[in-house]
Fold:
Amino acid sequence: MLSHTTHPGNIGAAARAMKTMGLRHLYLINPRHFPDPQADAMAAGADDVLRDAVVCGSIDEALYGVVFTVAMTARLRDISLEVKTPRDAMPTLLQQAAAQPVALLFGTEMSGLTNEEMGKAQLLAHIPANPDFSSLNLAAAVQVMAYELSVAAQNFTPSAQAFIPASHEQLEGFYAHLEKTLHEIGFFTTQNPARMMQRLRRLYARARLEQEEINILRGILSVTTEYNARLKSRYQEEHRNVSEH
Structure:
């Protein structure tokens, strides 16, 4: 998945990189120019990958149904999400891909992925490079990751999974429910909501939540909301009785 790609030539070159390693499912999130003759030219024979590319209006649309996302980062920021090299990350991605859709997420050429976009992932991958000149061209990064995925696939044996991982939309539904509940119970009174939700996303990303666990957590949130509403109602009733006397 390529997010907000600005140069159409990079889309074509990424499609070529994918096809050389046997990959074909390309998703584009709000590309600046696509379709475009420059993309066709740089694809150099990977026209079928470009032709079948899915253009999405948002990252949530692109990740619909995906259970595991590896997001690329060129710099190690103030993050608590797990970061691995491509060599270490690809077996994990393959294991998840054995049963459910997965994704590799790349950001825009100039600034990479935003913190919000990285918050949609369960794992970050960082390509080790010259610290004095570490920024790879987008298509080159796609080529590296596609190659590492191909290498990992050659010796990969899937192990049986005893659980069903939660999909992207199930996780997003939980995060929305969690944020709403925390607002209702006054948790954010002394907290920065955006910053706190970012940290909570990373916490749950490390947990690799299952579908059943999502149901349990949302059940807890629902009970919390109901209990908080009863407490508020009781307080208002007692306050009204005191005022009347």
Notes: The first helix runs from residue 8 to 20. Residues 109 and 243 are 63 Å apart (CA to CA).
